[in-house]
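Margin note from the TA: students keep mixing up input and output lines. Inputs are the sequences; the output is the structure of the whole complex. Example:
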Amino acid sequence: MKSQQALKILLGIYIFIFFAYLFGPLVIMSITAFNSAEFPSITPWECFSFRWFNEGKIAYDGQHLAGLATDWRLHEGLITSLKIGLGVVLLAVPIGLSAALVLTQVHSRLRTAFYSLSIMPVLFPGVIIGISTVVLWDRIATMGGGGLATELGRNGIFLTILAQACFISTYCFLIFVARLQRFDQTQEEAALDLGANQTQVFFKILIPYMMPAIASSCVIAFLASFENYNTTVFSILSDQTLTTVIASKVRLGISPAISSLALVIILITLTVTIIYEVLRRREDKKKKELEAEALFAQTLDSRLKKAKTKGLKIPKSIFGILFVVVVCIFGFNKMVEKGMYGSTCIAASEKEKKSNFADQLKLLQKNAEKASQQSSENGDVGEKKEFDSIFGDPNLFKDFGGFDSKTQDQD
Amino acid sequence: MSADVELQNVSVSFGNFYAAKNVSVKIEKGEFFSFLGPSGCGKTTLLRAISGFSEPSDGQILIGNQDMAGIGPNKRPTSLIFQNLALFPLMSVADNIAFSLEVRGTGKVQRRKRADELLELVALSGQGDKKVHELSGGQRQRVAIARALAIEPEVLLLDEPLSALDLKLRQKMRTELREIQKRVGITFIYITHDQGEALTMSDRIAVMNQGELEQIGSCHNVYESPRTPFVATFVGENNAFYGTVSAVDGDMVNVLADGHNFLAKAGDLGEGKKYTFKKDDKVIMFVRPESIFLKDQNNQADNIFTAGFKAIEFEGNLKNIYMSIDGKQNVRCSVSNAVDTTDLSNSKNVELKFSSRDAVVLPVGPLAVD
Amino acid sequence: MKYFFNKNGPLISTYLIIAISFWFVFLIIIPQLYMFDLSFRPNIPSLLRGGPDDVYTLIHYKHFLFGSQTSGESYNYVDVGVFFNTLLIAILITLINLCFCYPIAFYIAKVASPNTARLLIVSLIIPFWINELLRSFALRILFAGEGFINNALLKLGLIDNGINFIAMDVALYTGLNYAYILLMIFPLYNAMETLDKNQLEAAEDLGSSMLKTHFRIVIPHAKAGIASGCTMVFMLTAGALATPVVLSSPNTFWFTQLIYQWFNMNDNWPRGAAYSVVLLSVSVVFVLLMMRIFKVKIGEIVR
């Protein structure tokens, strides 16, 4: 008995660690969005500020680090992503639906082949789907000789919609297949028997039944498209989506503006999830009440307890929310008291950094010279040079990655 | 309004397998006709062929003297009530009922009117706006019937619609179905594996086994004069005595079984003919449990025998007494609960009797396996 | 075919056929075939395609194995090394993920009360909807030189100098592990959920130890889920691009990054295609291997 209890405690600890691992990085990233320092971190904490949500700042070395509200590249990327998401939904959902419907009508061997082909795109690495789409359409565009085909073949948005639809259709397909498995086919037969033709059966029986699956596959398709990077980075060509903008930003140096973007996305996700969950619970409750009522009507005796009189019931979660709010207000007050919020704080820290700037610049130059020497020494035709060219000067990382250049030299 | 249905040598096969084989039957206008058989006997296949969901691989189906070949289920004058009812869960009750009118383009007001009419017919007035899942099992049953009747079909096909209900409700619905049939006056073709349902509701019954028709006849005919050992044992309970013919006298046959010489009548072959036997033929003699009586002093019967007592089973209105002759031949006898059986348990042997009129002799054949 | 038209009616049949053939032919089959074809062709400007120079050649595959002709080495140690490193790490990460997720999936599926399970599932899904890039970014913040972990360790006095997690690839491997953890949990959870709790109780009742119960009952039952989770995690890890872009150190490469390089930086599409074909073949082989080992159908892997 005792070992069982110990096991339970161990399991509890394990689960706690697991979720800490899952959420910890996200929480820390969210907090860094409020640190005014240009490197996203919690320690050292400079000042509490919303600057990364708004205008960003000009860094001490002259680089402009845009905040969320002023970064036009992010905005353009967002709009492109939305367009692509819409296109993918319009393409992938009907495709997935049709494939799922046909799957119910083919049998035995053909069915296996059909199913395998349908789910294959999910098993392809995303980069390959992007690449194959691009190479094919480039060929089509070349052969098209300036016509519509050329225009489409060179249009990154169009290509991305096609490439993403290739595998997102499979997601939709799987959702529809799951729903169709629970479909009672006698309903179709009943409708036919009552005189409906096949088209009427489709629109009056099948589509209403599939509606929840259609809704959820629209959402899934959109989200999958919105957050895709592996495929998009190839097929988007010269355009930029939100994810490719984020990727290039992260690669060039990490800025807290990305933390704030992440926080916005996390908050949106949380809100949507909570709303969905609340709605679902409410529906469950309603269903249960209805069932209880029906049972009550059927069992005519008084064995069933009467429904409890509705009182003002406070859900426990409210206490949790209240606690968080109180902590936030308290913490914020403390910060204002200590002068860690507002323009005076920021001005003070700027001043300190500027005095260090001259030293930093010298080190940077020294590093760059050393690195270029190295690369010319061993970089004839080998891969080294090519790698460097993508990822830029490795020294860039050192500074933006926040590495103390002194320790780097010692290595 | 009502039409007769005629099956001419209908076979339905799936690959090498005959689900129904060479079935011929003529179902009259306005008749309540049942196909009775164990599951897998091909009755549902037959029903689907009549309603148009599958085409017979051989033979013809005529409804109102019109060949139905190539006519889809939505063009046939039949309505089918499915085993699981197949009500549309996302529609209201009234929308369900008026669905057949909706797909034919009838206006909303008229649809509602017709739905209300039908709801009244099945005693569900005022329930039109409910959702299907808010109804009880019996109510759903009635909605399914109303929905099937909405376009005034000439033939209503019912595929074991009562099987999902519990016993009491099933019995009630039997009576109701029969009444509705009388009221609307159209042909009902009913499929069931429950002989009680078939016997209580039908005008005529067709008993099926392994894709083939075993016997067609009225309820009395099927119950009292089974034509095959299968029918004898599938419809109702029966004691089967395996034996050989020792003498034949017109329609009466002497059967030697388990050391007894029983007298019984020869089985019917239909159309007034009877089986003819000769001496030493292997036969089965069937006697229903309710036709076997405990012997008492007063009345005599032409068949008297003794069996060893085994057990007694209480069934409410009846008591089943299980016995055996020489420990081999099992005999079951049903007596009314009013009969006193207290001293039976003490005695080892029981004296039994039955009339030769209640015993049927048939050639050896497969029984319905329980 | 006639049956198909009869069953669906003309309008719907047309829609079904157009949608499916568009998907199968234009989105799945032709692009892959063309990429395969391209991988055997020389790198020439696209206007010269179909011309006399456009002949079949194996140079790209040769380059992958033996390196460029100018280099002195007999094998292309860099690319082949990256390739095997990618595979090896992907397999390791898959195994670690499996061990890491198994208890959680089991807990949610069989131990937790329905409400707790629901809550846990929802909290698992939330991080999954946040972009892979952003999740990697979060880890980068943690692992950076002046990042959270280094600072915490320094403050605690456990280390004297910052540890370069990124150069050591710790960050990359953690990131890859972190990125696809949910794709391991869900198949496992789905498979375990269908296990009848009575079976576990029966095993316990018959005196089976907990470990034994898992090996004899839970794991065989969850076989398809394990196969599915492992396949998905391996495929995604081996084909990952976003996480390596954010977290790999300047001198470590993931195989997808090589492909990316041939495509976007060096403008050698046929070579990129050839490298893609290599990656694709590995994926196909891996799926087939999983199907063999676990004796499951392809439909059980992707759900």
